[in-house]
Write a structure and sequence with these properties.
Helix content: 10-25%
Strand content: 25-35%
Structural class: alpha+beta
Number of strands: 6
Largest sheet: 6 strands, antiparallel
Length: 109
């Protein structure tokens, strides 16, 4: 899956962007939960069609992350660290999403 940098005004990396055209909210939660060591703190319930923009919160090695669909209806998700800062955990999370492959026939993830 392709990712794009999300940076603060000062240029510091704080997360990344992924397209949600091939990955549902539930699929994004599944990718996050498959990362070794991740603890899901909060996630949108299955079969719920809408919810808050930040629909998943998880922790990896003490670092908190949010998965956000900006404006509640967008063609992309933002995966950001909280507080926003670059870290080895962010690199691991990004790698997990970047290496995720959607199988044809299971497009909604």
């Amino acid at each position: 899956m392709n990712t794009r940098d999300l940076r603060q005004e000062n240029g510091q990396l704080s997360g990344f962007i992924i397209s949600n055209l091939l990955l549902s909210r539930r699929g994004a939660i599944r990718v996050a939960s498959a990362i070794p060591g991740v603890e899901i703190v909060r996630a949108q319930r299955p079969l719920r069609l809408s919810g808050p923009d930040d629909f998943c919160e998880f922790v990896l090695q003490g670092k908190t992350f949010l998965v956000i669909e900006p404006f509640g209806d967008n063609s992309e998700y933002w995966v950001v660290s909280e507080p926003p800062e670059d870290s080895p955990q962010l690199a691991a999370v990004r790698e997990a999403f970047a290496s995720h492959r959607v199988l044809f026939g299971a497009l909604a993830g």
